[in-house]
Amino acid sequence: MRMSFEEISHTADVKIRVYAPTLETLFSETFKALMQVMYGPNRACGILREIRIESSDNESLLADFLSEVLFVSEVESLVFSEACIRIDGLCLTAELTGEPFDPVSHSGGSEVKGISYSGLAIIHEANGYMLDIIFDV
Amino acid sequence: MLEGVNRIGVNEWEVPVGYVAGMRVPGRFFLSESLGKTLEQGAVQQLANVATLPGILKNSLAMPDIHWGYGFPIGGVAAFSVDEGIISPGGVGFDINCGVRLLATPLLHKDVAGRRDLIDELFRTVPTGVGAKSAQKVSPQVLDGLMVKGAQWAVKAGFGVERDLIRCEEGGFMKAADSHAVSVKAKQRGMPQGGTLGSGNHFLEIQVVCEIFDPGAAKAFGLALGQVCCMIHCGSRGLGHQVCTDHLKILESATKKYHITIPDRQLACAPITSPEGRSYFGAMAAAANYAWANRQMITHATRQVLSKMFRIDHEEMPLIYDVAHNVAKMEEHVLDGKHMNVCVHRKGATRAFGPGSRDLPSDLTSLGQPVIIPGSMGTSSFVLHGTQFAMEKTFGSTCHGAGRIMSRTQAKKNLNGREIMANLLKEGIIVRAHSENAIADEAPEVYKPSDEVVNVVHEVGISRLVARLLPLGGIKG
Fold it and tell me: In this predicted structure, what is the pLDDT of residue B390?
């Protein structure tokens, strides 16, 4: 299965469709989509942060992880580029790498206000995973 | 019009019980035939989903700017019985008390026409866009006071004049605010962002009154033909977003705990009287107060710019009114002849209280509440007034804007920010933003024509036209 994300038409907000071969890559691709929506494509590595999340199901685990990314990114003024994710049952550990927010290179996007549960369902098929997710902008 | 929807008036449509399983009341929305061509099935489905929630009264409603959102549709209004009903962040949204205010000035069109320096100075002074931080970081103690007293805190701190407060819904703060129900994380996000505009559809715009429909009401509101005004659209920033995120999680568990069946996880909810429901309401009210303080701080910054450039006093720039778009409030309404306390959710809708209602400034009691409807950066904005008919029909609610018709994906693909700015400039409208994408995202073409939307609410009678304003320039998030 291909690994990618694409923006799907949604009137008010941003809807993202993601395909990935594993649950971990599904999460990391969705994370990249979130960062791209917010800060555009020019994002570098360097500063490391770790996030640990525990939730009640895979969809909540993803929403909680992305909400935590929004929080860390905003309060620490960090723009992330990559996430190395490990999922053990309903526990997630993510090592994020990024750089300080720079108004010149990171102002091309739109602030994401929240991760919506509307229509959020992770589908596991024979050849991988897919999901649709709405970011409130 | 979409299949399964019944016409019940010239601009009024019903979504019958049964459209989705479990509906307790019918859905109702207000839309002209022509605006109906852009209505998405997803929006109607969301309107019907709201009708399944426990304790909903009369109808699940939507205004003519209805479009597909998450949880409630944008433009959605629903009232719930305080004793038997629920409260849901899905009926408020992440940007709690995103709202709009209109500031009058003594300036005329000729004073500001073509003044790029004014727009540049506003852009320098008011932090906008992704990652923007305020020059005035508040301490945790100050933030607590801000969340409890909202615009009143701001005015006492020097960001405004006393009269501003009587021109805000609720006097600029909801008394139910509970800062203890706001997480440490939300507070961390709120401390550096007071007085920032944000991004997306938020803006600060210089406008001119170009048409008066109701001279009596316009005069009472303080509006005159040719007068320059300033419109400010923003919300509760990261603090409000975090309050919604935190309480959605709590209310998801509460939905199961109280055995409530919901058709969409974003409609997670709890009984209004439950500890979880009360906690969300207290936190939401605190975030709403943050938004009022935020708009008040931006108002002060705007007055400072105008005062310095045009040598006018802050008192010469009175607030016409401030309205909330995304909020849940406890209000008294009359149902079947009986006065009832209900919890009204407005998600992308504006309160439009009619004459004689509580919470109106004493000089406007006989007229009804001023209603401010922003257009897009190239189209007209409008001032209307609330009506008794709105009290009877829509729990005193009307539309909140033009309503999007084009997705952001399409906007980015089909529209060019630089061209849009050049075209607007030909019409005398100067726009500044940190990115061209932000301009394309919010181009006039992505919205329904604002005049068609307000004509529907005027014709239906849930608010009545007072004045039209044209944009002269603005700054975008």
Answer: 98
Nearest CA to B361 among B221, B175, B218?
B221
Average pLDDT over residues A93-118: 93
How far is Cα B476 from Cα B455, in angstroms, rounded to an integer? 26
Measured between alpha carbons, how far is B53 from B48 in angstroms, rounded to an integer?
Answer: 10
The parent domain of residue B188 ranges over 6-405+447-476
Return the amino acid letter for B80.
F
pLDDT confidence of residue B162: 96
Inside any domain, residue B439: no
Task: Kindly list the structural domains of chain A, giving each domain's residue range(s) and its CATH number in brackets, ordered by start.
Answer: 4-136 (3.55.10.10)
CA atoms of B170 and B330, how far apart (whole Å): 11
Distances (CA, A) of A135 to A95, B53, B199, B236, B268: 22, 24, 14, 17, 17
User: Could you report the per-residue pLDDT of A72-84, keeping only the tens digit for each?
Assistant: 999 999 999 999 9
DSSP string, B184-217: HHHHHHHTT-TT---STT-EEEEEEEEEES-HHH
- A117/B188 CB distance under 8 A: no
pTM: 0.96
State the nearest Cα–Cα gap between B174 and chain A, in angstroms: 22
B129: nearest CB among A13, A74, A107: A107
In a domain? residue B426: no
d(CA A123, CA A67): 21
Q: How many Cβ atoms sit within 10 Å of the Cβ of residue A18?
A: 24
Of A12, A75, A113, the CB nearest to B68: A12
Alpha-carbon distance A109 to A35, whole Å? 9
Cβ–Cβ < 8 Å for B37, B66: no
In a domain, B319, yes or no: yes
pLDDT of res. A2:
59
Position B306 scores a pLDDT of 98
Q: Give me the interface pTM, i.e. the ipTM.
A: 0.94
Number of domains in chain B: 1
For the residues of B14-42, what is the DSSP string, one character each?
A: EE-TTSSTT-SS-EEEE--TTGGGG--HH
Whether B422 maps to a domain, the answer reads no
Sites in chain B below the pLDDT cut of 50: none
pLDDT in the model for residue B131: 86
Tell me if B408 and A120 make a contact (CB, 8 A cut-off): no
pLDDT recorded at residue A130: 96
CATH number of the domain bearing residue B260 = 3.90.1860.10
- Judge whether B385 counts as a catalytic residue: no
Beta-bridged to residue B27, according to DSSP, are B15, B60
